Amino acid sequence: MENVRVIARMDIKGPNLVKGIHLEGLRVLGKPEDFARYYYENGADELFYQDVVASLYERNSLHDIVSRTAKDSFIPLTVGGGIRSIDDIREVLRAGADKVCINTAAIRNPEFIRDAANKFGSSTIVVAIEAIRQPDGKYMAFVDNGREHTGVEVISWARRVEELGAGEIVITSVDREGTGKGYDIALTRSIARAVGVPVIAHGGPGKKEHFTDVLLEGKADAIAVASMIHYDLIAQQQSDMENRSEGNVSFLKSGRSSFGEIAPAGLIAIKQYLKESNIPCRN
Rounded to an integer, what distance in angstroms lies between the CA atom of residue 258 and that of residue 119? Predict the structure, then answer.
């Protein structure tokens, strides 16, 4: 096994870092640049910004945030949300991103993946697949942050994405996202077995054991994590964040079961756990 990448995933709405459950019920946590800088300083291998309402409003508004982050963080930065054209990709890369992530535009026009890979290189193009398990056991792809059914079956779509030239796939279990119940192992494994490009698992971790599960059993190449590291940072700097008007973190004290499923952990602790589990990762 090659070194596993631990990716800090940050969902953005307007100027704020937000977090929800099943990609809904978004709560403002604070300024994304503050979180990004902390994650960079504490060992994140990559940063991943996702504008969670960009496709809904047909625009991407992260350019200023990306520019500010790129000045302080010297690790790969992937940006997704509302990217619909070659010009959109070019603008995001000029702002400081290293890679772009597309979903809605790729589903609606698959040849966009090929055009983008030919123009910027496969290593620059990441395709996100938002999957929801159906009553018959099949996984179907959704867009617009899990809001819109596409009628596209996930495994066949992943194979098509690879054929068109995408360099990586981010597979999100909408059913598990934000719940702390763990990654969808069956979903991740089915994608990893179907394609030859790196597969990034996203959606669901609530304790450190979930990372080893998805890496060893799910055959993921990288893990994206959000709630665990966000809540860990907030817990460490709670008094400071409570004084910031843009951050609303009172829900972490509420005792609601949905948040009780998640055991906060920092990136350093996560990587140490992976190493103790004989899973190679970068320092």
Answer: 43
CA distances from 153 to 78, 103, 141 (A): 25, 14, 6
Judging by beta carbons within 10 Å of its beta carbon (0-12, 13-18, 19+), is residue 210 exposed, middle or buried?
buried
Q: Global pTM? A: 0.91
Question: Is the model's pLDDT at 228 over the cut of 70?
Answer: yes
Three-state DSSP class for residue 204: coil
Instruction: Provide mean pLDDT across the span 88-104.
Output: 96
Domain ranges of the chain: 5-276
Both tokens assigned to 176? 């598990």
144 against 138, higher pLDDT:
138
Catalytic residue among 11, 33, 168, 184: 11
Pairing verdict, β 199-202 and 222-225: parallel
> Does 33 qualify as catalytic in the annotation?
no
Catalytic residue among 33, 46, 88, 130: 130
CA distance 217 to 127: 22
State the architecture of 5-276 in CATH terms: Alpha-Beta Barrel (3.20)
Is residue 11 annotated as a catalytic residue, yes or no?
yes
